[in-house]
Backbone:
C-alpha cells in the first residue's frame, strides 16, 4: 500500500474538525474552525481542504450549491501511519521501544491495562475469554 503524504499541523486541525463535526461545506468548516480559535480566512480553509483532498485524506461531494467535504481517513488510521513513521525514524522500524516509551510516560487505568492484555492475548492467538 502506498504511503500517503504527511499532514501539516494546520491540515490536521481541519481533519480534526471533520472527524469531530462530520462533513461540511467550506463555510461551515471555516465557522467551526473559527469557534476553535483558528482565525483563518475562508480561502485558507478552502486551500487546506484542497490540499487534503489531493493527498487523499478528504473527499469532496457536490451537495447543492456548495461542495461538501468529509474525512476520507479515520483518526485511528492516521495515528497508525504517524506511529509507524515515528518507529521508523526513532526506533529502527520496530515498535517495541515506541510502545514502551508511551507506557513509561503515561499513567494507565485498570481499563487500559485490561485492554492491553486483551490485545496481547489476541495477537498471541490465545483465548480472549475467561479461564475455566
Residues:
Amino acid at each position: 500500500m502506498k504511503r500517503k503524504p504527511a499532514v501539516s499541523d494546520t491540515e490536521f486541525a481541519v481533519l480534526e474538525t471533520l472527524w469531530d463535526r462530520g462533513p461540511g461545506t467550506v463555510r461551515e468548516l471555516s465557522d467551526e474552525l473559527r469557534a476553535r480559535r483558528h482565525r483563518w480566512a475562508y480561502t485558507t480553509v478552502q486551500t487546506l481542504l484542497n490540499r487534503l483532498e489531493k493527498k487523499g485524506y478528504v473527499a469532496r461531494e457536490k451537495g447543492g450549491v456548495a461542495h461538501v467535504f468529509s474525512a476520507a481517513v479515520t483518526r485511528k488510521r492516521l495515528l497508525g501511519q504517524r506511529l509507524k513513521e515515528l518507529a521508523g525514524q526513532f526506533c529502527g522500524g520496530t515498535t517495541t521501544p515506541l510502545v514502551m516509551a508511551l507506557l513509561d510516560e503515561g499513567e494507565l487505568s485498570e481499563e487500559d491495562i485490561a485492554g492491553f492484555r486483551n490485545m496481547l492475548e489476541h495477537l498471541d492467538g490465545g483465548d480472549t475469554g475467561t479461564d475455566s
Summary: The mean pLDDT is 89. The helical segments are 9-21, 26-35, 42-55, 75-90, 96-105, 110-124. The two ends are 42 Å apart (CA to CA). The beta strands are 58-63, 66-71.
